[in-house]
Write a structure and sequence with these properties.
Strands 1, 2, 3, 4, 5, 6, 7 and 8 form an eight-stranded mixed β-sheet that branches. With 166 residues, the chain is an alpha+beta fold. The relative contact order is 0.22. It has three helices and eight strands, in the order βαβαβαβββββ.
């Protein structure tokens, strides 16, 4: 049975440290161009979706990016490295404090706000995306794995240069 976050012990420092470390590793894999490490943060059976707040609120399942396995995430990284053509750029993530929404044994649901800036090859830096991660984790010993990450972007105007994962 899921326990509402308001009934969870506030002193679960270990779990919050794991969540904070996870978010830092996630951002680092993308921001430091270590994309091959990114899929390893997910469970084998997982879902990764990028969508808009409007579409999410309307219950639309499809997203701008949709993957339903770790293999699909690896294929996305391979395509970025070998097949896709896009202007060279990088991201810098600013990630808020996770909010634990529910916990049931080794399963955990959390929500985390984010901002992503895009740095173009020319050096131009722009706000690229803001939103929240709606996450479902599996605790595997001392490690969290994403079972599902729904990236809900605040704006419905998503830049067409959405190549790298958010």
């Amino acid at each position: 049975m899921s326990v509402p976050a308001t009934e969870m012990p506030v002193s679960d420092d270990r779990l919050y440290r794991l969540l904070g470390q996870f978010q830092a590793q996630y951002a680092s894999a993308i921001d430091e161009d270590q994309l091959e490490a990114w899929p390893d943060l997910f469970d084998d059976a997982c879902r990764y979706i990028i969508t808009s707040a409007d579409n999410h609120k309307a219950g639309m399942q499809a997203g701008l990016v949709y993957a339903d396995s770790k293999g699909m995430l690896r294929d996305r990284v391979s395509a970025l490295r070998e097949a896709n053509i896009y202007e060279q750029h990088s991201y810098r993530h600013m990630i808020g404090q996770p909010l634990i929404k529910a916990r049931d044994g080794a399963e955990l649901q959390a929500e985390t706000s984010f901002l992503v800036v895009r740095i173009m090859h020319s050096g131009e830096t722009l706000l690229f995306a803001s939103g929240r991660y709606l996450d479902h984790y599996r605790l595997d010993g001392e490690r969290l794995l994403l079972r599902e990450r729904i990236v809900v972007c605040d704006s419905r105007a998503i830049d067409t240069l959405l190549a790298l994962p958010l």
